[in-house]
Amino acid sequence: MGDPFSRNSSMARTGKKPSVKLRKARIRHFLLTTGPNRLSRGWLYRRHHAEGVELVEQEIVAPGWPKAFDGIRIGHISDIHVGDLMLANRAIEVIQQLAAASPDMVCNTGDLVDLHWPGVEPVAEALAAIRAPLGNFFVLGNHDELDSGEDVERIVSDAGTTVLHDDVAQITRGDDRLRVGGIGWARTPARCRQRIEATIGDECVDLMLAHNPKAFDHAAARHVPLMLSGHTHGGQIARRNRPDANLAVAHRRSAGLYEHGDSRLYVTVGAGALFPVRWNVPAEIAILTVRCGR
Ligand SMILES: [Fe+2]
User: Fold this and answer.
1) Residue 14's pLDDT band (cuts 50, 70, 90)
2) What sections of 19-79 are H helices per DSSP?
3) 246 CA to centre of ligand 1 in angstroms
4) Which whole number is the average pLDDT over 52-63?
5) Helix or strand or coil: residue 57?
6) Overall average pLDDT of the 235-244 stretch
């Protein structure tokens, strides 16, 4: 809790002025989170912190997926938002929940931090400690950039996770290969397109990580078999049994599995939260079993 204008940010340490985006985010945090919690005398936080995070299993059949990687299990985690609503110790427990499912690969699609990065180091170390034989990958979300995206990338990378910032990693198995691309934060479809083009150029990738699901239209145009995203939190409030009917009205694809041509998109509703309420959209981590063919 605390005053939204005097948090322990990197700016407080370096003397730099906070960005306009960070100041706006602090005000939003005060209005949606800290303020209501104070009015409720701490009840909102107590209730929110007591809620669990579900482990969701999803099979995805993706045409074009490399045969040697048929059936791999990807641990998809996103939007942890370490901060008031996800204390570092709780985040580490959630990550250990994912580790216990023994995924072959871990993909973190961003928003590791909520507002400020100081204190996120043990969470980054817990993420990197998941023993995933096919690798452990991370892309930046919009919240990671509020305070200092460079510091978040440095902390995640130093801990041992591969940061994909408009970059591609290649995993080989026998004669086959899996190319994993990841783009930095991009707000608009046009910016997503630019970043995807800068990332894959004339090549192709099999798996694309992008915080913003708005990147999917262009990923599908480039015949990417599978893209993973977060960002929407599934709106956090949805109609019962209608995950698509939610508060994330700016997004056509906001929760679950989508198809466009031969491409597939999974949008996780995330492990953390932007405000301390979730109705009919429980927090999740996902194990995605990816199969090739139709
Ligand atoms: Fe988020």
Assistant:
1) low
2) 20-29, 35-39, 43-50
3) 15
4) 96
5) strand
6) 91
Give me the amino acid identity at 193: R
Type of residue at 105: M
- What is the rounded distance in angstroms from the CA atom of residue 65 to the CA atom of residue 240? 33
User: Of the given ranges (3-17, 137-151, 207-221), which has the lowest mean pLDDT?
Assistant: 3-17
Report the distance separating Cα 281 and Cα 54, nearest Å: 10
One-letter amino acid at 45 equals Y
Question: Residues 246, 248, 249, 252: is their CA dihedral positive or negative?
Answer: negative
Instruction: Measure 156 CA to ligand 1 centroid, in angstroms.
Output: 17
- Distance (angstroms) between ligand 1 centre and the Cα of 39 equals 24
CA distance 220 to 110: 21
**Are 227 and 190 spatial neighbours (Cβ–Cβ below 8 Å)?**
no
Angle at 224 between CA 232 and CA 262, to 5 degrees: 95
